[in-house]
Amino acid sequence: MGSGENSQRNYATEVFSPTPYSLLPIPHSRFRGSITRMVLKLNLKSTALIIIDLQTDVFTGGALPIVGAAELLPKAKRVLAAARQAKLPIIHFKEVHRKEMVDFGRELDGAEPVHCLETWSGTEIHPELAPLDGEFMIAKRRYSCFFGTDLEILLRGLKVDTLIFMGTMTNVCVHYTAADAHQRDYHFRVIEDCCAGSDWDAHWAALTAMEYLQSGTRISHADFVEAIVGVASVV
Question: Fewer C-beta within 10 Å: the chain N or C terminus?
């Protein structure tokens, strides 16, 4: 990972198809770190957008410390609008815990305070990102979207093999979900400017770790919107 925000990165072109990738270098410097970035092309029939824990408290100063949320919101709205225009399957997640706090497990052993109780209004999805009819909503008790949920059943039913992630926190729920997706042989991409972490160092480190798992996984919201609008216009 580069030491400054203006570090140069090497980028590449990816073709998303039933057989994944061919690579051509493209210079770019919008993002921190030195990685291989891919220009995105998507097969809409096998791709889903996964929105992780973009809950009201993320944007209103809730219990958890989160950096970058204010900058995230308008970009996430653009991504969601593009996915809806393209009729991409959209799966919303929210972390929620019972008011009796019996389902936190080890979550409170570290830096995190009590968060996302079912009785808190801030636990609901942010109203500007709330699911519409026909979109899917899944509640989870743990960090990974795969743990203790029916996500895999849903993905099999949708015949999806490629997951696009955005949400919070980059270094916890997004990272752990991406790792679980990788272990289950899904292709994944993470919209890094639509993610927010517990702090900036942890945010960038998690993005680097996800890039380690699948080269070219880090994309921008503009990459996603461009790819989706382009494909949707000819589908």
Answer: C
Q: How confident is the model at residue 35 (pLDDT cuts 50, 70, 90)?
A: very low
13 or 48, which is more confident: 48
With beta carbons less than 8 A apart as the criterion, state whether 63 and 115 touch: yes
Question: What SS3 string covers 2-67?
Answer: CCCCCCCEEEEECCCCCCCCCCCEEEECCCCCCCEEEECCCCHHHEEEEEECCEHHHHCCCCCCCE
pLDDT of residue 230: 66
Interval 161-202: pLDDT, tens: 999 999 999 999 999 999 999 999 999 999 999 999 999 999
The C-alpha atoms of residue 145 and residue 210 are separated, in whole angstroms, by 16
Antiparallel, parallel or unpaired: β 162-168 and 187-196? parallel
Superfamily of domain 45-232: Isochorismatase-like (3.40.50.850)
Q: What is the pLDDT of residue 231?
A: 59
The residue among 73, 118, 64, 113 whose CA lies nearest residue 95 is 118
How far is 7 from 1, CA to CA, in rounded Å? 9
- Three-state SS at 154: helix
Report residue 152 as tokens.
């895999």
